[in-house]
Design a protein that fits this description.
six-stranded mixed beta sheet, Immunoglobulin-like, 5 helices, about 25% strand, four-stranded mixed beta sheet
Length: about 220
């Protein structure tokens, strides 16, 4: 049976890994100094470690969120992805809240990749995104959930988890898709990759370097 890159479940972990490493494609990080959200700080995206994602941990994170509210209805919040930011994202939500993602951008593929920050990390996200890529990757660790949606599509791709945030703490909400990347080409390349970032994709800085990031507090 043939599957499209948008629906084949075998591609879920690959998409999750590509979401966390796509910033290695961003050789044009200087793009964040102009255009939308130009007041956001520049981000060094050239040194992000493409081998830092532990797929076993990703699978475990998915399982924990999938069963966080077994037998009960979670609180649901829809977050809109725009060029280049997140709208309708609360400052805080209760543990067990399920976030859904709606990409409203006309041409750009967007994702909502959410990472729980370490308990001893008290620097604001504005400061963290200025760190060298390998340092940022080490702090972020594996994503708690990753949801993607192509422009004009009704289908949300649950690359990691289902959007449920089960553990209290401070979270970083980010998009790693390269600026200007063709959505179909990116998803096709991600589906065909061997676990690393999609190869041969034309594009600039990752969207978080253009301002598409936000902090979220999950309360007990």
């Amino acid at each position: 049976m043939n599957h499209s890159p948008l629906t084949d479940p075998r591609h879920a972990v690959r998409l999750a890994i590509s979401a966390a490493t796509a910033a290695t494609l961003a050789l044009g990080a200087a793009a964040c100094s102009s255009g939308a959200n130009a007041d956001r700080p520049a981000v060094d995206t050239q040194s992000i470690d493409t081998q830092s994602i532990d797929t076993a941990s990703v699978d475990a994170a998915s399982a924990s969120t999938d069963h966080a509210h077994h037998g009960s209805e979670p609180i649901a919040v829809t977050v809109d992805g725009v060029d280049y930011g997140f709208e309708q994202l609360p400052d805080s939500v209760e543990a067990g809240t399920r976030l859904s993602f709606h990409n409203t951008a006309p041409t750009e593929l967007h994702e909502m990749a959410i990472f729980r920050l370490p308990d001893d990390e008290d620097r604001p996200l504005d400061e963290l995104v200025e760190l060298p890529g390998d340092e940022l990757t080490e702090i972020l660790g594996n994503p708690a959930t990753v949801l993607l949606q192509a422009p004009g599509s009704d289908e949300v791709i649950p690359a990691v988890g289902d959007g449920t945030l089960a553990e209290p703490g401070r979270y970083a909400v980010m998009c790693f898709i390269p600026h200007g990347a063709d959505p179909d080409e990116y998803l096709r390349a991600a589906a065909e990759s061997d676990g690393g970032p999609p190869q041969g994709i034309e594009g600039g800085a990752p969207h978080f370097a253009l301002g598409m990031y936000a902090e979220l507090e999950v309360t007990a």
